[in-house]
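The following block was generated as part of the benchmark described in Methods. Ligand: iron/sulfur cluster.
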Amino acid sequence: MAEKLKVATCSLAGCFGCHMSLLDVDERLLELLEIVEFDRSPINDIKHISQPVDLGLIEGGVCNAENIHVLHEFRKMCKILVAVGECGITGGIPSMRNSFTLKECLEEAFVRGAGTENAHIPDDPEIPLLLDKVRPLHHIVKIDYFLPGCPPSAEAFLYFLTELMAGRDPSLPQELIHFD
Ligand code: SF4
């Protein structure tokens, strides 16, 4: 049997919808596990990449200092790095805050929005520092492929992975690109 593709996945500033879509392969997950082996991923709850892997799939854009750290770790450990879904490719819905200053966003969320007297912006040092703007992945590191969709469908994930395994260009045909 050919060696399995070692894959790591993570969600940065995303909603986990792209990961849910990957799991929508349903019973074909068994077929998928014939060709791929997951390293770090929310799917198996492994928190760190244990060894260099063939492929990294990243959902979500970059909104805080921890996201930057994780993204650099993925770039270092993954031979091929893929921006998955609109949030990874453009910043997506989280980047809607880019029209406002970070201060305005924080005050709206934690002070005006809270509507209580003691409301304040959380300042626990454990909380990762927010960036001024939400960025797409390719603004921070080199990205090898973009897997579009919100989320990309299960079929799109399967197509992408099987084409990659076969050594072909994994660009999606138009009919597999959806934003619903
Ligand atoms: S691309 Fe869509 S489904 Fe994927 S993380 Fe962003 S909002 Fe969620």
